Amino acid sequence: MQLSPKFHQTEAFKKFWQQGNGKEMIAFSGAQPSLEGFEKYAHLYYHTDLAGDAAARETLMNMSFPAAMRMITAAAGENISQESSLPPGLKHMLLQMQQEPAWLNRDLLERGAELCRRAGLNALIVLRDFTLMGGYNYAYLNKPLIFTEALKKGAVKRLTDTLDFWVNVTRQDALNTHGKGYAACVKTRVIHAYSRLMIQEMIQDWDTREWGKPINSWDMIATYIGFSLTFLLGLKKLNVRFSAEEEAGVFHLWKYIGYLLGIPAAYIPENAKDATAQFYLWTSIQPVADADSVMLAHALLNESLESTIYKYRYQRKRLRYLHICCNWFLLDKETNKRLNIPDVAFKKLFPSFLRSVNRNMQKLSREAQLKKGHNAQLKVLADYLRTAPEHFSA
């Protein structure tokens, strides 16, 4: 199939890159994006993780879900050899994941993970109100969520799964082979493959030409640009300062996570300039938010009302209001309007407060910031795990 940048002439594309968050990405990265080099990445729209697919066929599609997850979880914590009695597809995938690539720099990996922890609640706000909500602006990217009935499962569950994964992969030494973050990547890789296979086998009207293969490699890279480039831009907007080494570390962190999840590492951007240039190309094949996108966005907005972390409804309504304020501060005006984010009163006050707090937070020692941020993130995760519906990695 031949892919072309069919949406680059639309008003929405031009506004994003000339006036909106895309313009901020260009200013942050110093990139000069163009459509040159589109062919280098286009094939990734139809490329998927075949090793993960084989592992999923032998486990999640051939056993009961609990039994398969017990096998996968146990195997993720073991040193797998060629003599292992595991199903051959799962064994092959794990043998590949155990091989550390020559480019991996563990020190740089830790610098990126440290920034994720040091940012504390700011990181979680950016991930939710900028990265995750901003992703709903792209109609085709969201099709797997619609076909796997993410709306029926609820935003609380999806947010819990995402938070659990992100926290696990950003702890100290978490991505050491057989560490907790490594294990999270093993399970996530097989779950992605299972979801893709289910869509391919059960959804007859999946439009591969337009939407790419389900959970394809280019969509995955775009998602992880959200966890790196968009994440860093969001922290900057909230006055969280970081060093050049920490910035490089965040990109290195998500390159390695992408590698563990079966994405061809050669195509995963290593810096803000490359990430912006590639994101520009990817957005040229994505129409903006449709009705499904708006439903997903409002499910995320209303997650605060559905969650039972807070006992009283007024507390939940206040939390929803604060997230809406952050949506308006982090996302550009056009994206907020397309997703029908409510325009609330005094929406600049809470982000201004956060920026002021973060300015003072920089006065603490690095060690104090790390400890405080780490503990705050673990508390939020514990609250979600305690109250959310059962999720796949439980």
UniProtKB/TrEMBL annotation:
A GO MF term: oxidoreductase activity
A Pfam family this chain is assigned to: MPAB_Lcp_cat
ER-bound oxygenase mpaB/mpaB'/Rubber oxygenase catalytic domain mapped to chain residues: 143-342
PANTHER family reported in the protein's UniProt record: ER-BOUND OXYGENASE MPAB_MPAB'_RUBBER OXYGENASE CATALYTIC DOMAIN-CONTAINING PROTEIN, SECRETED PROTEIN-RELATED
Protein name: DUF2236 domain-containing protein
Species of origin: Haoranjiania flava
